[in-house]
Specification:
four-stranded mixed sheet; alpha/beta; 7 strands
């Protein structure tokens, strides 16, 4: 699975694409989302997961956050994706087809 940043895709917020399935990376990302949803983790470096390949020097951290859900761009290659526990559960459910697709 790849993580790629498209700086010119959106005027409102950064556009990050997680693609390339099926793969061990997809399973690792889904497991990370579930771990965040269950409160086992408060932050996961998605770009460092087994089977995940960042395009360029992108660093994407998934974080548990109360309140406002957002994707923050902290530098040209550093991002924090913040959601609450319910949001991470939704992300895991939405990502499940990536693990099964052919």
């Amino acid at each position: 699975m790849r993580i790629e940043f498209f700086p010119d895709r959106s005027h409102d917020c950064p556009a990050i694409l997680l693609c390339g399935c099926p793969s061990a990376g997809a399973k690792a990302v889904i497991n990370a989302f579930r771990s965040l949803a269950e409160g086992e983790e408060t932050e996961v470096a998605l770009h460092q997961l087994t089977g995940v390949t960042p395009v360029g020097d992108i660093q994407l951290f998934a974080r548990n956050a109360k309140g406002h859900e957002r994707l923050q761009q902290l530098s040209s290659t550093l991002f924090h994706w913040c959601r609450n526990r319910e949001g991470w559960l939704e992300a895991a459910e939405l990502a499940e087809p990536m693990e099964r697709s052919q």
